Hints:
With 480 residues, this protein is α/β, with parallel strands linked by helices. 34% of the residues lie in helices and 23% in strands. It folds into three domains: 2-128, no CATH class; 135-222 and 307-460, Rossmann fold, CATH 3.40.50.300; 226-297, no CATH class.
Amino acid sequence: xxxxxxxxxxxxxxxxxxxxxxxxxxxxxxxxxxxxxxxxxxxxxxxxxxxxxxxxxxxxxxxxxxxxxxxxxxxxxxxxxxxxxxxxxxxxxxxxxxxxxxxxxxxxxxxxxxxxxxxxxxxxxxxxxxxxxxxxxxxxxxxxxxxxxxxxxxxxxxxxxxxxxxxxxxxxxxxxxxxxxxxxxxxxxxxxxxxxxxxxxxxxxxxxxxxxxxxxxxxxxxxxxxxxxxxxxxxxxxxxxxxxxxxxxxxxxxxxxxxxxxxxxxxxxxxxxxxxxxxxxxxxxxxxxxxxxxxxxxxxxxxxxxxxxxxxxxxxxxxxxxxxxxxxxxxxxxxxxxxxxxxxxxxxxxxxxxxxxxxxxxxxxxxxxxxxxxxxxxxxxxxxxxxxxxxxxxxxxxxxxxxxxxxxxxxxxxxxxxxxxxxxxxxxxxxxxxxxxxxxxxxxxxxxxxxxxxxxxxxxxxxxxxxxxxxxxxxxxxxx
Length: 480
Ligand SMILES: Nc1ncnc2c1ncn2[C@@H]1O[C@H](COP(=O)(O)OP(=O)(O)O)[C@@H](O)[C@H]1O
Ligand SMILES: [Mg+2]
């Protein structure tokens, strides 16, 4: 290989066709003297050899003649090599000086004397190593093992994205089971009911997660009291999810205090009775009554034997708490999420529970608009660390990409999806676009803090847990 040019942070190299093949994401070292440039291959193209069009046309026209084998001076193979040489496009990732990677050193290696070779997986592991202690093995890269550290997910905002069936949920399960094993609490909003099987292994036996995995099914083992939800959350549910007008909400607040005063505690039944009894405008009464009845129909509220989420969270030292939203209708999903988020925030603020990770798959389906900002600012500050998983990148606001500390990017072919993701501030858009387009399933490009800002392409390893991502098929997998 030889250096062809360097333009900004893009380095172009020429390689002959018989050199060791490189894949997108591979790291190369360009060494000259005691220093090396570290660059990452993002694409491979044919070299623009002058006259190539003419050559190829001539070749095509003479295909039937034996002329092309006429090579009296034996230079054919060299010419062929020249015409077939590759242009490798790589991104500058830094200069290695005394074993450490620096971005501030201005230095160019010689075009002719420098040695260019593939970087060893050990060197990449070393350079991307952060100072964590809790290792999570993610998979393989350049025939080495890639691990990240749980500490780099802690307190951070993480996005896992890629098109359908590429392995996002699988990776999420790998990450959260490792986090739970290190004692972290992970709350999962599970819209497809695919996180409920983590207590089992692939062959149906009890998995190592069994004692640390707890499924909350709304309406069954997850019903909450109105009192525990509190006036603010109930008013938020009425306002944001059931589209209750402001004047009606004001009336609701008055009724709430009156029930509290007269009965000592607030229940859904008590509120419904009060609405039917107390004096108010008929239209307000109707508006409130219909909404309270629909809250009651969700089956999520139970004032007699409610579950307290803090009891579930505190009864174990870390673990995965799955909130199964798969069987709830759209509006009920939103009500449950509203309750859970507002409850978790107040419990964290009171110091009643430990900080936790929150996995939200396809969050735009149940998260109200105003929560995005809140989740990455206020809620993260008090101890909710979001992991957003989506196959629709533009369903997550741009601002979230800019703030993301870690991105696990699987394949995307659609240009507009790629354009959107390339707004993430931790990596250049060329890398995102060229690498993500070509990623095979189960491979992802990891960007951000977990890899010390050295993007790597990883083939995600297999886990023995029952991952439950399989789509149910009508005709089964065998067509014979
Ligand atoms: N690293 C992996 N090793 C083994 N199987 C995997 C891996 N990644 C994904 N799969 C399988 O591929 C399928 C799709 O993965 P999934 O994570 O559900 O995709 P996505 O969430 O991106 O739609 C599932 O059947 C899953 O079990
Ligand atoms: Mg999925």
